[in-house]
What does this fold into?
Amino acid sequence: MIKMKFFVGALLALASTTQAAPIPDAVAAMLDAAAGDPTQLKIVADIAKKTNPQSAAEIETKVTGFAAAQANAREEKLTSQGFFDGWSGSGEAGGFISSGNTNNKGIAIGANLAKETRVWKHAIRSFVDFQRQDGVTTRERYFAGYEGNYNITPNFYALATLSYEKDRFSGFNSRFSESIGLGYKVINTPNIKLAVEGGPALRQTRYTSGFNDSAFAARGAGNLSWTISPALTFTENATTFYDSFNTSVQSITALTAKLGGALSARASFQYNNESNPPPGRKNSDTTSRVTLVYSY
It folds into this structure.
């Protein structure tokens, strides 16, 4: 009987020593302050667990609670918003240096809009590169595009895209592209996102030579976003259109650094290639841009 009491007492003592300790007030305050930024919250939580191992279970419970509350709030917001609600975007302005069919420097201006609902994700992107010297336009490139994604599963989606381009110095007055297809998120983590897309497309091109072309094409794309740190993001967006007459490739690589508040700095490199350009035109063009970005 005495041995049994001793054994039960030992178990109770062991349980009391291994019971999770409350989170220190200072640590809880840091977690609360970082709750709005998932990346920052993970960093703070990992440090808090290492420095307060006796409270690791309680810290994990608190972080999980933050995630559940944010998911519920996001779901309610997406369900209740109207068409004109929930849009966010950015505008950027700076300079560019081009090579290929033109070799000069000029002004670069761009704008982006995005909206996400429970099942749809909308993105609108546009930019202009322009230079005029001694009364003569020496660089003029316009682009505007829309992509709508419909979520089928968390990683699988259907898509529709529309785009317009104009670049007289590369040989075309206008090019319209329309496509539908499917996309898959190969990597879908808070810090790294990689998606691949593919599907049929239709393109209409008016060349500066006066020749007009309409063709069915295949479209493939890859989109990478890597949050290196809370203040630094790397992105790569590549798109290919392939038809019986011409193959077009566009790649935009960018590094964006937050400067503070809504202001960021961005350095980007764009590569364009046409397998069958108009006579007298080069296959490839490159554009390097440095811009200031304001998010809203």
Summary: The mean pLDDT is 87. The chain is about 20% helix and 55% strand. Residues 2-80 form one domain. The two ends are 73 Å apart (CA to CA).
